[in-house]
Design goal:
single chain, 317 residues, 7-stranded mixed β-sheet, 5-stranded antiparallel β-sheet, 14 strands, binds biotin
């Protein structure tokens, strides 16, 4: 595929792009352009070609392809390095292996994960072509204690991306995105750091987009956009997610967190609810009363003691 041709077709929004224009920009013959257009059609692109007018993109296939993903993103985005894989054990594990040599904001995306990971040793179902499975490799110059906030940024970015596509979702603090009380997205943030500084953070996001069934163990608690009635292309959501994430991530690095916190509070399905907090050695009943400026959940325990949870596991009672 060819990122430049795709970008021209996508930027021209419903207009024809002439062979002469493409040929002038890319320095290739019209015959070569014709060949490339045919290749794109074989891959599932619908391209209208009219003599003397040129080429018009009618639709693109929902495939995880590096050129296509990059062509749909703004050039000036932080992300310059995108790795796209057909399959991988886990994009988080793959990212960890390469993180040292990758710049801040790199992304690893896979069409399928063979052993997708969830939090607390759980697995994350990642059927081929059914979802978005991606990891950001991030190297912010921050104290390690600030790392949990990245989960909040991912959640806020996804909410914005879905709102753009007219999908309303809720966040179950800290890392699940919920529709109709079922989980359609999970976030797994993993950090490598020393006492004072972060070496890198791998921020993994798994979104159930097009799946229509789930393994027995999770079928009562998991859902997908498709199951909920939303016919959305993975690419349309992916482009918006990456774009919103990068803007909010830059805001955060520059000390601006108001928008992120507002989104989390406005779309929380936890605030005001009676919950159970799972500690490593016990469970406690509590009420979720606020999300503080660090993105931590403020809860009031049954004995009225107020506690702040930076990360952890809760359930709504
Ligand atoms: C959870 O629900 O507990 C977190 C799920 C996180 C899943 C994503 S999919 C992309 C990235 N790679 C993984 O192996 N896990 C995360």
């Amino acid at each position: 595929m060819n990122k430049d041709i795709l970008r021209m077709l996508m930027d021209s929004k419903n207009e024809y792009v002439s062979g002469q224009y493409i040929s002038g920009k890319l320095g290739i013959t019209r015959a070569a352009i014709w060949k490339r257009m045919n290749k794109l059609k074989e891959l599932g692109f619908e391209i209208d070609s009219v003599t003397k007018k040129g080429y018009k993109l009618i639709s693109y296939p929902d495939i995880m392809n590096k050129d296509l993903i990059e062509a749909g993103l703004d050039n000036d985005l932080l992300t310059k390095h995108i790795i796209v894989l057909d399959d991988v054990d886990s994009t988080n594990d793959y990212s960890k292996k390469i993180a040292k040599n990758m710049p801040d904001g790199s992304i690893v995306i896979a069409d399928e994960q063979l052993s997708g990971k969830g939090r607390r040793g759980r697995s994350f179902y990642s059927g081929k072509g059914e979802g978005i499975y991606l990891s950001f490799i991030l190297k912010p110059d921050l104290e390690p204690s600030k790392a949990p906030f990245l989960t909040s940024i991912a959640a806020a970015a996804l909410i914005k991306a879905l709102k753009d596509l007219d999908v309303d979702v809720k966040v179950k603090w800290p890392n699940d995105i919920i529709i109709n009380s079922k989980k359609m997205c999970g976030i797994l943030t993993e950090m490598t750091a020393d006492v004072e500084s972060i070496e890198y953070i791998i921020l993994g996001i798994g979104i159930n987009v097009k799946g229509t069934s789930f393994p027995d163990e999770i079928k009562d608690v998991a859902t997908s956009l498709k199951i909920e009635g939303y016919e959305i292309k993975r690419l349309d959501l992916l482009w918006k997610l990456i774009t919103h994430f990068e803007i909010l991530y830059r805001d955060f690095v520059n000390g601006k967190t108001t928008e992120i916190l507002d989104i989390l509070k406005e779309n929380s399905c936890v605030l005001g609810k009676d919950i159970t907090v799972y500690y490593s050695d016990r469970n406690e009943k509590a009420k979720a009363i606020d999300i503080n400026d660090e993105g931590a959940l403020v809860v009031q325990l049954e004995n009225n003691i107020v506690q702040t949870l930076n990360s952890g596991e809760i359930s709504i009672r």
